[in-house]
Structures are given as structure tokens and as C-alpha cells.
Amino acid sequence: MDKKKYQQYIDEKKDLICGVSDQIWEYAELSLQEFRSCELYVKTLKEEGFQVECPVAGIETAFAASYGSGSPVIGILGEYDALSGLSQKAGETVRNEEHSGGNGHGCGHNMLGAGAMAAAMGIKQYLSEKPAGSGTVIFFGCPGEEGGAAKAFMARDGIWKKLDCALTWHPDDCNQVSSGTCNSCIQTEYAFQGIASHAAGNPEQGRSALDAVEVMNIGVQFLREHMPDEARIHYAITDGGGISPNVVQPHAQVLYMVRSVLVKDALALQKRVDDIAQGAALITGTKMKKKFIDGCSNTVPNQTLETLLYKNFQEAGIPSYTPEEEAYAKELTESYEVKSDRLPGSAWEESKEIKAFVEEATENGTKPLNDFLIPYLYSEKKSPGSTDVGDVSWLCPTAQINTVCFAAGSPGHSWQNVSCGHTSIGHKGLLCAGKVLCGAAIDLYEDPALLEEAKAEFAEKTKIGFYSPVPEDAVPVISGEKIEF
User: Fold this and answer.
1) Residue 232: helix, strand or coil by DSSP?
2) E strand or H helix at 214
3) Does 420 share its domain with 439?
4) What is the mean pLDDT of residues 414-427?
5) Is the pLDDT of residue 479 over 80?
6) Which 3 state secondary structure label does DSSP give 38?
């Protein structure tokens, strides 16, 4: 099978694909508010011959674009939400907001979605030349990764169960196949309602909601001594009750994030945090309500699919860069307020050979663009963060890659990422990702034994069963909105 024919098709469509990425960059819509971004994808995909369902799982900005018929059914995952406060002019090497106080794609999800669409388009072209029933591709638009966890809600509703496997990617400063696992995560917002009064004249009549938040936070500090070492708890006060110190605060809210490796352990820890919140309300004489925001599971690595992705990475090749691109990236690296001495990727932490390779390839971490592929290493090591790709990986075999879309060492969720995400560097990275995912999918259609091997590995690793972090009655919500009593 000449996969290059279909990867070249992605190049033929690069103006459309990169144009979508740049337009989503301009929209810079926050989690669960990606209405224009979703509309653009739906319109583009329909014009390209996909059957598009929107909304999906009751989420207004989620969609599923399918082509083909029969099995296997391969899912390609895309995202397109931005981050608040990260507006930045494209291609600049100094902080310069595009819109004062506006949003920006500091995680590169404008590219993530477009690169995933590129893969789906290449796969569609392949399937269009095969007999009916040869397979199906579904490109899923997954909103709210930065606070909404749409994939987890879709997992709760069983959407991923209909897939034979799922492939995805994420912009980064290196080219690698991602392996290992991560933390599961649950976000819950707690609101307290008290009674306002004059803080000096009649404090005895007041019941402080802010006191309740502070008592809850103190209670959680004591809990930290008695929770598993790998667990994490973070919080942010989203409503302090007002700015007048002479008024007893009648309302206050705090957003909590509870992490542990497995969802069942996070749920157990979450219950203890809930109990502390109830205790804080009792101590302060206030009322408490809680609202589930989102939750996601740890990732389940699949060595079979990861090995396949690495092979296709080698076949597709790595982008090369012009002197102008390298000069721009070098200036960006000089703008970092805090410079990291970490090498790119993660495999070097577990392999002396890979560490030596990366040190040489980066010229001891001095290259502004990482123009090489990090050797693949299967891992079950846990990273501290969380992603809702984990929920997909508990319901079907799943694997992902990273490609260079940012300057070397670029801080996550930074204005530097936003700047680079609307440049030729970002375009090259997303097109590369699309080609790798497209090639791997074609191999899976062509060789059913590969997919069966991936499924057998998946079945063994997930035999304990899937614990959804999302309650049955929960709906996607935006954190920080006032909880009504």
C-alpha cells in the first residue's frame, strides 16, 4: 500500500488545513464556548464530504465527522479550546497582546484540531478508493479539554466503545511517541452561603461564607498528611465574597482539583474533601452546595499502537526548518523568563541511551528547534498532569504522538506558544502529525492482525473495569459561575 499517496493528499490540502488552524487561533474561544470554532469545523468537514453529527453527548460544541462504512472504526481526536489571558500577536518574540486581556492558544489546540482533521482527510481519501465496508473513520471534535473534559462525558455515555481504536496527538517542542500514564483528576466547586452583617457593628448576626472557605482549606491541609503519596489536591478561591472588609461575606466559592492515579482512588479522596466541606459549613453556620465541574481518567498506554505510530513517524519524516524559522525560534527561547534545563521529551528519563541521543541531537539543549525524532520507549511511568484522553483509553485502544510546534523549551500555556502557533513552524508540525496518524490508520485497515494485537493488550490492561469520574446526572459546566442556593 502506497501510504505516501494519501499523505501527499494532506500536503495538497495544506492551505485549507492550515487556514483552519489559523482561523481557530484568531477565534481563541475558551472551554465549552468554542461556538465559532465548532461551526468552522462542521462547515469545512461537510464540504469535504464527511457526514457530521453536532452536537454530541449533549455538548453544543462537540461534533463527530464520519466517512466510510464497516469495520474497523478508527477514531481521530481533535481539540480547539484556548486559554484566558494569553492573547499574543503571532510571530513576535516579545510580549505583545493581540487583544488586551484576551484569550490565546497557549496549548496549541488550534493546531491539534487542524492536524487531526488533516489525518481524517487523508484517511477519507484512502477509504474513498476502497470497496464499501472496508472501514470507517470518525473525526471527533472534543471541546473543553482545558476545563470541561468533554471526552470524559462522552466516555460516560459510551461513545468510545464503538471504536476499534483511537489515535491523537498534541503540539509540543519535540517529536516523539507519547507513552506512560498520568493522574486521574476530579474538579468540584464548593459554594457557601452565609449572612451579611456589619463586621464591627453587629458581627454576631453575620455568618461568613469566606470563613467557611478558609476553614475548608485548613481542613484539607490537615488531610494532606493522611492521603496517598501519589495523590494531589489543589484549589483556587473563585469568589472571595466581596471587597469590603467591614461586611461579613455572605457568599464565597472555591474550586478544588483532586488527583490520584486511578479514578477509584480519586473518588475515595474526593469523598473526604466533600466531608470537610460539610464540616466547614457546620463550623461556620453557613450552607454549602457543590457542583461537579469535570473529571478525567489516567491514560492506558498501548505498546502495539505506539510501536506502529513510531514506525509511521520514521516513514513520514521530520520537518526541516529555514534559517528564518530558526532565528525566530532562537529569539523566542531568549524571551523565557525562567529557562528550564530539562531535555525535551520524556523517554530520556528512563534510558541512558536515549538521554545520550537527545543530548547530542539538541547540542546539549542549545538548539532552538528540535529537528529530530526521539527514539521510542514504552513506559508505564506516571506524569503528574491529567488529560481526558485517558477516558478514551479505558474504552478502546488509544495512542498519541507529539510533534514540534513550539520553540525548544517553550513553557506550557505561555504567550510564546501562542506566538508560534500561527507560524510556519506550527503549520509544519500539524501537517507532520496528520501524516503520521493517517499512515498508522492505513496500516490498521490493511492489517487486521495489528488491531487484534492492540485489542488483546487493551483487554488485559483494562480488565479491572472502567470507573467513570463523571456522575450520571452531571452536565458540562463552566467553572467560576455563581452557584445558586
Assistant:
1) strand
2) helix 209-223
3) yes
4) 98
5) no
6) helix
- Residues spanned by the domain of 260: 184-296
Specify whether 169 is located in the same domain as 31: yes
Q: Same structural domain for residues 164 and 26?
A: yes
Q: Which comes out higher in pLDDT, residue 51 or 479?
A: 51
Residues 6+ positions from 90 with CB-CB distance below 8 Å: 25, 98, 418, 419, 421, 422, 423
Q: Identify the CA nearest to 478 among candidates 84, 118, 32, 83.
A: 32
**Are 257 and 313 within one domain?**
no
Average pLDDT over residues 8-15: 98
Q: Which three cell numbers stand for residue 234?
A: 489543589
Q: Is the pLDDT of residue 321 over 80?
A: yes
Residue 351 lies in a domain: yes
Same-domain check for residues 303 and 397 = yes
How far is residue 414 from each of residues 18, 85, 86, 337, 410, measured CA to CA in Å?
Answer: 21, 10, 7, 11, 8
Percentage of the chain with pLDDT > 70? Answer: 100
pTM of the model: 0.95
Q: How far apart are CA 425 and CA 96, in angstroms?
A: 19
In the block, residue with C-alpha cell 469590603: 244
Task: Supply the pLDDT for residue 482.
Answer: 85
